[in-house]
Amino acid sequence: MPKQFPDHVVYVSTLGHEYRDLRDPTIFSDAMSRSDKLEWQAAIQDELKSIEANGTWELVDRPVHEKVIDSKWVFKIKASEGKEPKYKARLVARGFRQEPGVHFQETFAPVVRKETLRLLFALAVKYDLDIFHLDVKTAFLNGDLKETIFMTARRNYSSWK
């Protein structure tokens, strides 16, 4: 046990014991065959509403001479001690099937270095500024792409509404 964190192992084991039955499904059919199926359906509907509200894509007929990327649902149960677990579902494009230089020119994800955050916090303290934290769950949906990407999803979710 690390000396700096004497309660680390105890905390993790407590959290793991409380939520030991809440494994994350790995595939869609796994999520739909579980006793918490309704929670996963609600999480999927929430994701689809976010995608629609952000105008992330438009439905088109499958193109004949274009590469179409498959998609996959990624499921995660976010559990905090003392709180109800949150069910999260994300529809992700399986972009690893694209070829660099053919289907896209560059990849870029905006990130911030720890040093930059430290500088901003120091300036906020020096000038007595307020700091607010935002968690934008659909931030990745707001990227501007130069390329047109065709993605397929295999399920019809309209029957859940």
What does this structure look like?
This protein has 161 residues and is of the alpha+beta class. The protein has one domain. It is built from four helices and four strands, in the order H-H-H-E-E-E-H-E. It has helices at 8-18, 28-32, 37-53, 114-126, and strands at residues 68-69, 71-78, 86-93, 150-151. The strands form two sheets. Strands 1-4 form a two-stranded parallel sheet. It is flat, with a radius of gyration of 21 Å. It starts with 7 loop residues before the first helix and ends in a 10-residue tail after the last strand.
Brief description of this entry?
This protein is α+β, with helices and mostly antiparallel strands and 161 residues long. The chain has four helices and four strands.
Provide the fold topology.
Layout: H1 8-18, H2 28-32, H3 37-53, E1 68-69, E2 71-78, E3 86-93, H4 114-126, E4 150-151
Parallel strand pairs: 1-4
Antiparallel strand pairs: 2-3
Tell me the domain tally: 1
Mean pLDDT: 77
Element-level helix/strand string: HHHEEEHE
Based on Cα principal axes, name the global outline. Answer: flat
Relative helix content: 25-40%
Q: How far is the first residue's CA from the last residue's CA?
A: 49 Å
Major sheet: 2 strands, parallel
Radius of gyration: 21 Å
Q: Which regions have little confidence, pLDDT < 50, spanning 5+ residues?
A: 7-21
Q: How much of the residues is beta strand, in percent?
A: 5-15%
For the largest sheet, list the strands in their spatial order. Answer: 1-4
Helices, by number, come to: 4
SS class = alpha+beta
Number of strands: 4
Descriptors for this entry?
two-stranded parallel sheet; single chain; about 30% helix; about 160 residues; alpha+beta
